[in-house]
Amino acid sequence: MENLFLVCLVPPVTIVEDIDEIKNHISQKFNVHESLKRPAHITLYNPVKLSSQEEERKFFKALEDASFAESFTQILRNFNSFDKHTFYLDVAQNSGIMNLQAEIKKELKPLKLLQEQDNFKFTPHLTLAFKDVKPLVMDLIIAEFKDKKFKREFQVSGFSVYKHINKRWQPFKEFKFKKPLEKPKSFSLFD
What we know:
There is one protein chain. The chain has one domain: Cyclic phosphodiesterase (Cyclic Phosphodiesterase, Chain: A), CATH 3.90.1140.10. Helices cover about 30% and strands about 30% of the residues. The protein has four helices and eight strands. The chain has helices at about 15-30, 55-65, 95-110, 135-145; strands at about 5-10, 40-50, 70-80, 85-90, 125-130, 150-155, 160-165, 170-175. Strands 2-1-7-8 form a four-stranded antiparallel sheet, with helices on one face. It is globular, with a radius of gyration of 18 Å. It starts with a strand and ends in a 15-residue tail after the last strand. It holds the Pfam family 2_5_RNA_ligase2. InterPro entries: 2H_phosphoesterase_YjcG-like (IPR050580), Cyclic_Pdiesterase (IPR009097).
């Protein structure tokens, strides 16, 4: 048994439809298709392979512990890129998303699921094109969107886990936020 999971934020359907329209436009005009294989999402923790029920139990328990958070408003604004390999919608950094990602990372760290080099600096973004984009094509995409404006906002009251099934990412589990003050205290000999 080996399962691949992704922890992410998924915008509401109306925003996803707008994003899919942009992804389809880019795909058709520039002949890049890799991003169409993935749902519109903001990665909170890199995909991880879990190979036992015990690993999965610990993984989901850690995510449950990370779900004590306050709701927040997330803004998606305009376009950007990472060098010549990834074109994306900018996800405004705010304390809500930064704290959520830090809490998920903290709760999952003891499980040692990621290599140290995968322990990336978190730059929230929503990918529109990547992997199959050549540098010259990336320049054309950037030029086309350079002066275009995009702004959507939505309320975040939880996060999602997607599972890789039949070569596609599928919704698997939702974690709704719980009141931070209700989080059980961990006990230590030195408290």
